[in-house]
Write a structure and sequence with these properties.
Blueprint: H1 2-13, H2 18-29, H3 39-56, H4 65-80, H5 103-114, E1 123-129, E2 133-135, E3 141-143, E4 148-154, E5 158-166, E6 174-183, E7 193-198, E8 212-213, E9 221-227, E10 231-236, E11 241-248, E12 251-259, H6 260-263, H7 274-277, E13 294-295, E14 298-299, H8 314-322, H9 330-342, H10 346-361, H11 384-399
Antiparallel strand pairs: 1-2, 1-12, 2-3, 4-5, 5-6, 6-7, 8-9, 9-10, 10-11, 11-12, 13-14
Length: 400
């Protein structure tokens, strides 16, 4: 009787530490982003720390159902993520640990040192594809000519320049055949690294032949070849940035995810950035309602210049694009426009891949799809699809 009484008192007064273990695990993982390449590495470190914490509390938590559920859950998660039982673990003091070459870690450390809970860092997305279509950091969607070399991004941490060439004779539409990316030196995390891709040469290394920057252990900057010769990813942990570069057909596409505070860190002389401010009005194909929309496989002339006949009509181009994109958003309409403009089916894959990049990198799911609306000046409102509809209506009115 005394034994059971003692056990009862012990259970009441002995604290099971599972709640602290769980709280630490949440602290380790709350800032992680599944879209980033180092997610599995950091998540496994947190799981191993969680497991070690439960082991230390195994005796006092022996009769606690929450504890046993946590142990089973840890095992399942480690199996799902292919985590090894042995390996590095997250610090037992998450408030005090940070990696100076990990942007997420730096922002977490700053938050704890300040003593106040702050919002997680905001990220921005910019993409360029097709002939060419630009989605800016402000989620404005534009179609531009921008022939020659133009800066997409030029801030204190990253520079991205693209070179565009005409797609078909007589058309103002262009497409990207060269991309130059410069990761600027940052503290002890990385020295300057330059990447360059041109049509039919999409290397999985920087121009100096290396595939990473910074310390070999941390690899704050590195390149991953996703599909040989057609798709590479660059991960810059020190600035929280991910870059996708693809080749589809004879042209290149680009997508960038970057923290807002870093993307907007630039001097006044660096204001010509297409990702930040969009294309100059004089470079807009869709500006002012003068987009040369293809009709029945032939482009309407602009300035008296006639264009070659495309193999596609509006109907066949719509059917072709609908094979890959079921949602008729701005990417779908860009696909139709590109097919009618060039007759090149590779632009269908470019539009589809651009949307895949949005889904992988854009921080806000509710903004993945932009739908054309009438008007101009805001998200999706400068759509060439509705310009074409207005033009068709004017033609019909003229014949009534």
């Amino acid at each position: 009787c005394c034994l059971f009484s003692c056990l009862g008192d012990c259970q009441q007064h002995t604290s099971c530490g599972i709640q602290k273990c769980t709280t630490d695990f949440v602290s380790f993982t709350s800032h992680l982003n599944a879209a980033l390449e180092d997610f599995d590495l950091e998540f496994c470190k947190a799981l191993r720390a969680y497991s070690a914490c439960t082991y230390r509390n195994s005796k006092v938590c022996r009769g606690n159902l929450v504890y046993h559920s946590a142990v089973l859950g840890i095992g399942d998660l480690m199996a799902q993520r292919n985590c090894t039982k042995d390996g590095p673990t997250s610090s037992t003091n998450p408030e005090m640990t940070h990696d100076p070459c990990n942007y997420s870690g730096r922002t977490e450390a700053g938050e704890h040192q300040g003593g106040e809970k702050t919002l997680p860092p905001a990220y921005l997305f910019c993409g360029l594809f097709g002939d060419p279509h630009l989605r800016t950091f402000k989620d404005h969607f534009q179609t531009c000519k921008v022939e020659g070399a133009w800066p997409l991004i030029d801030n204190n941490y990253l520079s991205v320049q693209v070179t565009n060439v005409p797609v078909v004779p007589g058309s103002s539409a262009t497409a990207t055949n060269k991309i130059t990316i410069i990761f600027k030196p940052y503290q002890d995390c990385t020295d300057q690294k330059v990447y360059q891709a041109v049509t039919d040469d999409l290397p999985a290394a920087f121009v100096d032949g290396t595939t990473s920057g910074g310390d070999g252990n941390s690899r704050s900057l590195h390149i991953v070849e996703k599909v040989s010769g057609t798709f590479i990813e660059m991960h810059a942990r020190h600035i929280g940035t991910t870059v996708h570069v693809r080749q589809l057909g004879h042209y290149l596409t680009l997508a960038v995810r970057m923290p807002r505070e870093l993307a907007m860190a630039y001097e006044e002389s660096q204001d010509l950035q297409l990702c930040v401010n969009g294309c100059p009005s004089g470079e807009r194909i869709d500006g002012g309602g003068h987009l040369p929309w293809p009709v029945m496989g032939k482009l309407l002339p602009q300035g008296g210049a006639a264009h070659p006949r495309s193999l596609y009509t509006v109907e066949t181009a719509t059917t072709k694009c609908h094979e890959k994109m079921l949602v008729k958003d701005i990417y779908f309409h860009s696909c139709v426009f590109d097919l009618l403009t060039t007759g090149d089916a590779n632009f269908t894959a470019a539009a589809h891949s651009a949307l895949q990049d949005v889904e992988a990198l854009h921080p806000r799911k509710e903004h993945w799809h932009i739908f054309p609306r009438s008007g101009s000046g805001t998200v999706g409102r400068d759509s060439k699809f509705f310009v074409s509809l207005r033009l068709v209506c004017l033609i019909l009115v003229a014949f009534l």
